[in-house]
Amino acid sequence: MGSQEVGRIEEEVVEERRQEEEEIDEEEATGSALLTAEEFDKKIEEIKAKVREAVQEALANTLADLLEKEEKEEKRKDETKAEELPKCPKNLSWLKKMFEILPLDILRNSKLWRYRHCVWALQEAEKEAEKFRNS
Asked: Do 92 and 121 touch, CB atoms closer than 8 A?
């Protein structure tokens, strides 16, 4: 073997090693790119989960706020209605008679319904008076 042939063989070996290293580098780069893609997908899933959780929490809080607001509104309406109850008329006999005669569904839809507390109070007072007389 001549020095030229040894030099050529050395060049071939060096070239083969260089190609092998390039292939290994490409495989590692591809592998790390895949790993990066897997990590990227994992991060996306984590972010989606966090967003989903945040949206659900926000929705729950919003619904709770709406329910609380509705509850306060109902309470305010009830207080307002309690303040708006009309004074009972001095002669309740005609009102009591109307509540005895008219069907309940008609009474509920009429303005007389606002005076129901007067009639019920009168009925309770009459019951108490009857109990007192019988005892």
From this structure: no
User: Do 52 and 105 fall into the same domain?
Assistant: no
Q: Is the pLDDT of residue 85 over 80?
A: no
120's enclosing H/E stretch is helix 116-134
Q: Are residues 7 and 21 in the same domain?
A: yes
Quick one: 76 and 90 in the same domain? no
Cα 128–chain centre separation = 50
Closest CA to 92 of 108, 128, 116, 111: 116
| Cβ–Cβ < 8 Å for 101, 119 | no
Strands, E assignment, 1-133: none
pLDDT digits (tens, 9 = 90+) for 18-48: 888 887 777 666 665 566 778 888 888 998 9
69 with 26, same domain?
yes
- For residues 72 and 92, state if they share a domain: no
Q: What is the DSSP letter of 109?
A: T
Q: What range defines the domain where residue 41 resides?
A: 1-84
Task: Give dist(CA 119, CA 28) in Å, integer.
Answer: 91
What is the value of pTM for the model shown?
Answer: 0.35
